[in-house]
What does this fold into?
Amino acid sequence: MITVALAKGRLATQSTELLEKCGLKLDELKTDTRKLVLFDNSGKYRFVFVKPSDVPTYVERGVADFGVVGKDTLLEADKDIYEMIDLKFGACRLCVCGYESSLKNAGGILRVGTKYEHVTKEYFGVRGKTVDIIKLNGSVELAPVIGLSDVIVDIVESGKTLEANGLKVLEEVCKCSARVAVNRVSLKTKKGLAELLEKIKENV
Ligand code: PRP
It folds into this structure.
């Protein structure tokens, strides 16, 4: 049995479609169900849908053999897992955003609202900038608008949320997309895993 952790939300549909292209029959995954553990039609593959930020944990701990999750989430989680395939979908950028003059006008300590505490610390750390990181869990663009932070570090996909709130990309931290991240032990020991990963590569 191969267990796959899939990120709930924006990557879920494309992840499922890709696995179908690889020959898996995933009828149960397309039903409207509250079940947390689902199977492919053959019963050889087991799927868990979890919060994106939990995917690296499931994979690192080996309860999932691999997961599909955004590069942004992998960077933030910083787990000992093998990032193996860039799936190209879910493309977005992790950026420092704010008002045009936010970086210039901030005092000695830059207040940064973000879901990505680790990435933010690293990004400004190597640039020698002292930051006050304000951890948020969503609607991050609100922070500079309402004066909670000077800037934010967040993902930008279409740019519509920034635009609607009068904000701009000030700096790009990195480009992101969906990745396949694999448990290191599973890769060596799980029968059929390498073959499935090869099929995924072919179907990207
Ligand atoms: C993400 C991100 C931005 C938005 C960017 O939020 O945090 O707010 O999408 O997308 P856009 O550039 O296409 O507008 P998400 O929708 O995941 O919800 P959240 O606010 O709860 O984090």
